[in-house]
């Protein structure tokens, strides 16, 4: 396999535009707000190891929440040391505490040390290795940015213990963790330290999964829950808890890259297809049931009870971008684009302060009152309708913090002999082949300009968006028809060039496979990469009363009034309310209305409201 | 209130036709088949009180199963003593056993006496009074038909104990039973014996419900479950377990009739409207969730997970016909007709041998494989797709047995000064006003003939079906335009008359209220009283791919080939299968097909198959 790498975020400076706004919002608002809520909820206290003094009981995954937040700070220190000073001080305080609290043998976990020492390495689903993994990732980031290795050394000492307990002695009561993460972290640690043993450890945890008798399934009778159904050499389907699954596949992709293992890549291709052929929401979200937060079976994509955790968006970016490193296929970038503009952005409120855990594709507020008639245990789990600043299980907010902090990582691939632009995000990239500037209004008008004055690689390729029907390109002001192969356009350029790209953005309706029962007879509106939705606040209650014809596009109007993008107005029919429960079908009457659609990611920013992505199709 | 009665089934002889076929099927096949399965499963052994000898452990509601079967036998003895001889012998055997086993103090319950004597009158949800009620109803029927009062005396002794324990001493650990039934039975016993104390007992159980501190809710946190949310003087909504609820409302209606209590009637009117305005399936079934077998909230009418227990069809007939006794309104007969031709008939296979417990309005076989990916505890309860001969909870089959055995009870009301035909069922009725013969092809061609040679009441009224747009009537061969008031047509007749009625049957599509989310954009096909469905066996897999236009009726063809009724062929569009998960909506392609629709009640008689009542509407 030809294995490539993305230009790392350290070499990328986002410049003014749609994504820089989101990057800044994360840096300036979200990160501080998560800090506040974590301070209030005792999450930092957990790693201060002060339970005896404060009585604030840590939860067994608090360390991972804090670790992800620290990782975000570490990434942002790179670009804004002054702005991050206060956060850096907190990190140093926490590192002090960890150094002080770490057990003689290297063990480090705030909950197990303070509350449940008798459970150390006893229970597969208590997230010890998951917490360790996130702390390792944070420590690596912190070392890279600050050059200070105290945190890293703490985690290396902990790794020594993990190696002894799991690989040497086999004395833990499980072999692989209930929640994947350590695998990724260990490979990252191997890459950072070049110490072979970390690769060996990662390989152990990856290869033992589904391949040993010791591990008990997380969900009683269900091997899929934490990917115990098959071992990685027989992977075919995306199964079980989605975040755990995608972390596993990312780890396997890393192992494939490090060991040049084509079988692992082929298996991951099957998994990737299994997702994109039947288990992917149009928003790029995954997870069809909230009860086990898991993948289910192809075409089972309910909208109101969609789970589509925000962490899945983060994890999908990890998996798809790793696949791109193993193989130049446009589908990986297509999926990243879908996730970025939809499932990822919807996770955060437009003011940057609050977050969704689940990101549903439909909200019908009426349904939230329906449960009164049945006992509480029997209630359907319906997602919350407004974002919150912190959750009991608050894994998503700091995961979003760290994602946006290294957004630069996903833009451009260095293929050794040239560059390949995967995502159109305004930025200045310092690459081994020269500096590249991307200037985009991609989601706004489907255009991007790529320029350089010192590009030495002679060719550059760009990913053609999935929705692009016709690319109009000009090089240095001259219209040009590039070679197009497998979803990429190839340009021959001089050292200094200005490449203008127009992907021909337009509104279009998408149908789902007829096997997706929830979407039969329905369409979703998109504009380029952006999925649209209707909200009750614009369109009244009971959005399913509305029918839209595919011809409505001819009479659509776009208004550039929605947070940098367009809202869309369309003619539609709305079924009149009717008192009768059943009535002659020829008595249906409609109002001719215009409906307003907004980008899906912006839903639930104007108070509680009904919301609908998949509109009923008239004709 | 003017309180009237139906002509009792003892005075009604069904004559050849659609319903006589069903009556005979029940008498000749279903009853014997239920007997076989009950013998095999130890249900009769329960009442033989031979657990010590056989080791066959009775369940705590086995007595009620057997009682309903005995009640059916008692009804049928009236019309076919010779044919019922074998069943009568079994009844006598069981009565011997009960007489022998009944405790000194009158207590009689096979499970509690043999297995759990320590639980006697301790647990509200162990169906002791429910079993007692069914045994009382059986004993009354048996006494009426055979004139032998042994069984009745057993039950009267038991009633003495129940009166002492519940009304006098209050020594039971609950005041009202978890499952209603005793209330109905006691009023029937009062009517049969004229002993006031049974009315007092019935009133006690009815009035204490939702009106005392002693009763604990059946479902932990939910007062609706067994109608503990309000007392009968404040009834407004249909709530909780549907069968229990409808038995309660039937009991309240009986009490209203016996005490001429207008408030109770008004409350029941609210409950009736609550059901018909938002909680009723188009088939006449009720029950929107299988998990608690209960009503939920208006417009919550899921099709695939419809509960619509067969016992609900029986209970709805009980409730609606009782309401008709209290008030001459056509809506009660409309509902009975809807239930009869749909929810009631669907309960039994066309060969009479097997039964549905739940009667769903959609089956998508694919979904039954979907659950593999989630732990068993999290599975959605999907209804079975083929009828069974017996169930663990086999309340429905003997309830259906007894229902068909006294079908004659629902046809004609004696209003004191005239008769009113409520249901068009071919029969000869001996009434105080003379003999009436109904000869119908109601569901086949929308026609009925009513004749008499000795009718002395001068006027006769008939209920106009809800779907009848234009009645064509002729009296003694002469076209006549009757007076029509509140859904009834009134005719002045001589002693001897022939009244021909043509209700103008035709195919029509029905829409559901837009608040019923499952049916938005869908239509159901009806032909007169009969709801139609599509089956996979005729129309292929994934019936939701099919779209039908309301104009399809113009090109419909009817074939008189489906068990005495018509199957219907319609032009339709079928979405072509598509490999992609998402694709441009303008790429949808259709096949022009003809679909075959059959009466809903006949579904699942040709092997496992997809099934759909609510078809997607094209335009």
Keywords:
homodimer, 619 residues, alpha+beta, seven-stranded antiparallel sheet, six-stranded mixed sheet, 17 helices, 19% strand, globular
What does it look like?
By secondary structure, chain A is α+β, with helices and mostly antiparallel strands. Chain A is built from 17 helices and 26 strands. In chain A, strands 2-8-9-10-16-12-13 form a seven-stranded antiparallel sheet. Chain A has a six-stranded mixed sheet with strand order 1-6-7-11-15-14. In chain A, a hairpin with a 4-residue loop joins strand 6 and strand 7. The longest helix of chain A has 23 residues, at 18-40. The two termini of chain A are 48 Å apart. The model of chain A has no long low-confidence stretch (mean pLDDT 95). The interface between A and B is large, with 70 and 70 residues.
- Cα separation of the termini of chain A: 48 Å
| Topology, number of strands of chain A | 26
Helix content of chain A: 25-40%
Could you tell me the radius of gyration of chain A in angstroms?
25 Å
Give the oligomeric state of the chains in this entry, treating copies of one chain as homo and distinct chains as hetero.
homodimer
* pLDDT < 50 stretches of chain A: none
Strand order of the largest sheet of chain A: 2-8-9-10-16-12-13
User: Strand fraction band of chain A?
Assistant: 15-25%
Shape of chain A: globular
Class by alpha and beta content of chain A: alpha+beta
Residue-averaged pLDDT of chain A, rounded?
Answer: 95
Largest sheet of chain A: 7 strands, antiparallel
Total number of helices of chain A: 17
Largest interface: A-B, 70 and 70 residues
């Amino acid at each position: 396999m030809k294995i490539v790498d993305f230009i790392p975020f350290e070499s990328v400076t986002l410049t003014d535009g749609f994504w820089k706004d989101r990057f800044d919002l994360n840096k300036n608002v979200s990160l501080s707000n998560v800090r506040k809520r974590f301070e209030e909820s005792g999450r930092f206290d957990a790693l201060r190891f002060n339970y005896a003094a404060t009585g604030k009981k840590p939860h067994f995954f608090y360390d991972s929440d804090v670790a992800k937040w620290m990782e975000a700070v570490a990434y942002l220190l790179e670009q804004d040391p002054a702005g991050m000073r206060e956060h850096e001080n907190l990190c140093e305080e926490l590192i002090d505490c960890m150094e002080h609290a770490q057990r003689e043998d290297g063990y480090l976990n705030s909950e197990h040390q303070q509350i449940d020492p008798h459970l150390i390495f006893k229970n597969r689903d208590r997230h010890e290795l998951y917490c360790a993994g996130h702390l390792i990732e944070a420590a690596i980031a912190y070392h890279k940015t600050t050059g200070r290795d105290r945190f890293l050394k703490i985690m290396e000492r902990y790794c020594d213990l993990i190696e002894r307990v799991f690989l040497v002695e086999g004395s833990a009561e499980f072999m692989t963790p209930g929640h994947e993460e350590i695998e990724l972290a260990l490979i990252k640690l191997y890459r950072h330290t070049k110490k072979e043993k970390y690769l060996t450890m990662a390989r152990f945890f990856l290869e033992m999964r589904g391949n040993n008798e010791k591990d008990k399934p997380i969900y009683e009778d269900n091997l899929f829950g934490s990917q115990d159904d098959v071992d990685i050499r027989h992977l075919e389907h995306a199964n079980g808890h989605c975040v755990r699954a995608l972390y596993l596949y990312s780890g396997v992709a890393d192992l494939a890259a490090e060991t040049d293992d084509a079988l692992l890549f082929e298996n991951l291709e099957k998994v990737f297809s299994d997702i994109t052929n039947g288990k992917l929401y149009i928003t790029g979200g995954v997870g069809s049931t909230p009860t086990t937060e898991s993948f289910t079976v192809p075409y089972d994509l309910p909208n109101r009870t969609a789970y589509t955790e925000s962490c899945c968006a983060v994890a999908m970016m990890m998996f798809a971008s790793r696949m791109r490193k193993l193989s130049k296929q446009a589908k990986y970038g297509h999926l990243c684009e879908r996730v970025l503009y939809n499932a990822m952005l919807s996770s955060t409120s437009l003011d940057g302060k609050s977050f969704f855990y689940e990101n549903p594709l439909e909200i019908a507020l009426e349904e939230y009152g329906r449960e009164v008639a049945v006992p509480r245990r029997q209630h359907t789990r319906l997602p919350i309708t407004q974002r919150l600043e912190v959750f009991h299980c608050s894994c998503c907010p700091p995961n979003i913090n760290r994602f946006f902090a290294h957004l630069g990582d996903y833009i451009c691939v260095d293929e050794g002999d040239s560059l390949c632009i995967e995502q159109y995000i305004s930025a200045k990239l310092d690459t081994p082949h020269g500096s590249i500037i991307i200037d985009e209004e991609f989601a706004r008008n489907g255009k991007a300009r790529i320029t350089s004055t010192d590009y030495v690689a002679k060719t550059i390729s760009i990913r053609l968006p999935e929705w692009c029907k016709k690319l109009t390109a000009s090089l240095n002001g001259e219209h040009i028809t590039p070679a197009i192969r497998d979803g990429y356009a190839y340009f021959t350029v001089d050292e200094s060039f200005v490449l203008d790209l127009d992907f021909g953005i337009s509104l279009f309706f998408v149908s789902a496979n007829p096997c997706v029962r929830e979407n039969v007879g329905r369409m979703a509106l998109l504009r380029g990469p952006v999925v649209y939705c209707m909200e009750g606040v614009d369109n009244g209650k009971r959005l399913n009363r509305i029918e839209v014809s595919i011809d409505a596009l001819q009479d659509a109007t776009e208004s550039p009034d929605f947070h940098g993008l367009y809202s869309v107005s369309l003619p539609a029919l709305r079924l009149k309310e009717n008192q009768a429960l059943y009535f002659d079908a020829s008595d249906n009457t409609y109002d001719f209305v215009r409906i307003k659609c907004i980008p899906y990611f912006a839903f639930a920013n104007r108070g509680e409201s009904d919301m609908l992505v998949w509109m009923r199709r008239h004709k």
